[in-house]
Amino acid sequence: MPSFDEVLKEAGEFGRFQKRVFFLLSQTGITFSSLFASVVFLGPAPDSFWCRIPGAAELSERCGWTLEEERNFTVLPLHLGNESVTGECERLDVTWDTSVSCTSPLARHGNHSTGSLPLAPCHDDWVYEEPRSSIVSKYDLVCGNAWMLDLSQSILNLGFLAGAFILGYAADRYGRILTYLLSCLGVGICGIIVAFSPNFTVFLIFRFLQGMFGKGSWMTCYVIVTEIVGSDQRMVGIVIQIFFTLGIIILPGIAYLIPTWQGIQLAISLPNFLFLLYYWVVPESPRWLLTRKKGEKALKIMHNIAKHNGKFLSPHYSEITVSNEEVTNPSFLDLVRTPQMRRNTLILMYAWFTSALIYQGLVMRLGIIGGNIYLDFFISGAVELPSAFLIIVTIDRIGRRLPFAVGNIVASISCLITAFLPEDIPWLKTTAAMLGRLSITVAFEVVYLVNSELYPTTLRNFGVSLCSSLCDLGGIIAPFLLFRLAAIWLELPLVIFSILAAVCGVLVLLLPETKGISLPETVEDVEQL
């Protein structure tokens, strides 16, 4: 009986059928990256806000004050009494009622100077002056609640982490395409609920679930694409990353055109319902079917692939070699039971963690260095595009390990240089930062490909999902690490990023080279790499 790779070679390793499936599934990258980076535009800091004194709204309406006049009566006396108090997180501990004068609302407190009037922390009486609505103003994520914005991004990454385990397991047990379709449905439904959440708790719960389903759709589509092409065409695993970058580039345009955070949330969620149409055009992975002892179904799909590619399978292809491994449910122990698998798993987990922490840290750093957030975000996304082309022209010539290592090392050097360059050379500082973003993107994209190539078919989806769960752990830590360390010194996070990337650059050299080899079908194949 022929092996799967022999049948695939005769049916066409990257013909019209695979190109169509690749293009359709690649669209998932656009919606996933928009979800990944959406917090930058869902929760921008308001231009200005201040705390309203109880009763001020009613008095303002009676007196006919403008918002600016109400602010002057509320904040100006507070600032005159204590210049260090801005009126954003504290207010005068007084209450205005209808007996208060419209021209001198503090007259009843005439025996006190404004500096001696008691102060009280603000809780839920903020007034926001911002051109666009955001989750910050919707749920009052300011002052003592500001850390909750970081929490919202960490919760999303926690959802990614849960999706890596739960849906990665489901894809290996119940099938790639079923898991993909259910994940897309979940992303769409949860995204709608997030947009209309009545309170922040509901927002967090369904943002977590949207992250979980989002990770399931992205990782599963990636595995399907790499499993239906030949070993010489697996660079599609890199090309698919271009669509992730396209999502990053498109997102600021969506945010610029849509004035509300709810509209942005719906714009990045609703397209997932269109992916349900793939049920009729994207088949189950034949490699997965073979591992589940479903050779007849796999062969039927291969005949269909050959037909669409304008080829015909030989008549003696009545069966395909079925994996000799016993069909079992994957577990973490399967990934560390043998020496090569154990080494690969530990190094890949660290590489995922480092790539995600640095990448997301550099993306979120755009929100704290000032400038035009829409333009800066667009440029930073455009800088990522050359990374895929750099990998494509090098990966089949010099292999996987060297670009993987160089990407990390250059990112390390760039982050360190950016941290210590003086602010009076902005063009050089920006250039170094962009080089770091480009380099860590190269490393991030290579780890996807290498991870899928270093695990057998029976464990591939679970292995990729489990290792990439460290990517999600990095994403959980990134917001807190960035903002807390930046409060000490703005460039301190870059120094930490530099150290992590340098260590990763050395470790990945210990991985086996997978250039030009067939995807391993069994654990024994991996041990012989």
Q: Helix/strand/pairing class, anyone?
A: mainly alpha
Rg (CA only)? 27 Å
Main pleated-sheet profile: 2 strands, antiparallel
Report the portion of residues in β strands.
under 5%
Q: Average pLDDT value?
A: 83
CATH class of the largest domain: Mainly Alpha
SSE pattern, N- to C-terminal = HHHEHHEEEHHHHHHHHHHHHHHHH
Provide the spatial order of strands within the biggest beta sheet. 1-4
Distance between the termini: 24 Å
User: What's the total helix number?
Assistant: 21
Number of domains: 3
What does it look like?
The protein is mostly helical and 529 residues long. It folds into 3 domains: 1-43 and 139-322, Up-down Bundle (Growth Hormone, Chain: A); 48-95, no CATH class; 330-528, MFS general substrate transporter like domains (Growth Hormone, Chain: A, Up-down Bundle). The protein is 65% helix and 3% strand. The protein has 21 helices and 4 strands. The strands form 2 sheets. A two-stranded antiparallel ribbon has the order 1-4. The chain is elongated and about 95 Å long. The model has no long low-confidence stretch (mean pLDDT 83).
Précis, in short:
With 529 residues, the chain is mainly alpha-helical. The chain has three domains: 1-43 and 139-322, MFS general substrate transporter like domains (Growth Hormone, Chain: A, Up-down Bundle), CATH 1.20.1250.20; 48-95, no CATH class; 330-528, MFS general substrate transporter like domains (Growth Hormone, Chain: A).
